[in-house]
Amino acid sequence: MNEQAGPLFHLTEKVVVLTGASSGLGRRFARVLHGVGANLVIAARRADRLEELAAELTGDNPSAGRVATVAIDVTGPDAAGQLVAAAVSDFGGVDVVVNNAGISRVLPAVDDTRSGFSDELSINLIAPYEIGRAAARWMIENDRPGSIVNVGSVMGLVGGGRLRAAGYSASKGGLHSLTRELASQWARKRIRVNALAPGWFASEMTDEMFDSDAGRGYIEANTPMGRPGQPHELDGALLFLASDASTYVTGQVLAVDGGWTAI
Predict the structure, then answer these.
(1) Can you point out the beta strands (E) in the chain?
(2) What is the pLDDT of residues 78-118, one digit of tens each?
(3) Domain spanning 2-256 has what CATH number?
(4) I need a labelling partner for 242 at 20 to 30 A (CA). Which of 21, 47, 110, 162 fits?
(5) H-state helical runs in 46-205
């Protein structure tokens, strides 16, 4: 049994498309996926950061998978097609998509604007839909099983309360519902669709909370474990959903939140 457990989580020669790879959780995800053998297509808007990350990954572990970079705005009209085309051109196909790109705006709903709210939906919900559809279409046409992992949030499961992030919460809640719907549509095509819902982890998006005593105090007081998550504490959940360790799991939202949604 132990001999079989390790390979279950490996992605050797699998092709993974990862968005939002240039910073924060995405940068960590790239290291984790590459470390278990995946060939990576890493995507973000900042080309210089992508090239730096690609050099770091291949330099640290040249015997692991290969890395291709795509500097792109995921909300662009043909971004989804370009990402799948890059995976096919560089590595012969696509096996896994990790929809990680996202933004968050914190302000009272009464002070929000229609355009600001729409921007969050465009990046956090519509882009994953389009990228997932493009990947699934290729998988179905080529009779190739796959896994799509949407990065949601605990704020798509419970209200943010004092955090005041209506657009973010709406987009992540929608992403969770979309995950279940696409999972049911594509299950018989051997395409699994699941979501990862992180709690509080330090990243560019959460800098404001982590940089203030009040913010950290709020996280610690409201998390049953009494602390935010450490970067490595998402690794196992990500690999579980992306790899063959979860071949009978689809349509699920996996919260990794120190108990935030348990109370």
Answers:
(1) 15-19, 39-44, 67-71, 96-99, 146-151, 191-198, 253-256
(2) 999 999 999 999 999 999 999 999 999 999 999 999 999 99
(3) 3.40.50.720
(4) 47
(5) 47-60, 79-91, 114-121, 127-141, 166-186
- C-alpha 58/C-alpha 152 separation (Å) is 28
Spell out the domain ranges in the chain: 2-256
Residues pairing with 256 in the sheet: 198
pLDDT tens digits, one per residue of 185-202: 999 999 999 999 999 998
How many helices (H) and strands (E) the chain has is answered by: 10, 7
Cβ-contact 234, 177 below 8 angstroms: no
Q: Which of 46, 56, 58 is nearest to 20 (CA)?
A: 46
C-beta separation of 58 from 67 below 8 A: yes
Q: Classify each residue of 189-227 as buried b or exposed e, where b means 16 or more C-beta atoms within 10 Å of its C-beta.
A: eebbbbbbbbbbbbbebbeebeeeeebbebbeebbeeee
**Phi then psi dihedrals of residue 134, to 5 deg:** -65, -45
> Tokens in use for 15?
């092709």
Active site residues: 168
pLDDT (0 to 100) of residue 203: 86
Strand bridging mode 15-19 / 39-44: parallel
Contacts of 257 (CB under 8 A, 6+ apart): 154, 197, 198, 199, 200, 223, 229
196, 217 contact by CB (below 8 A): no
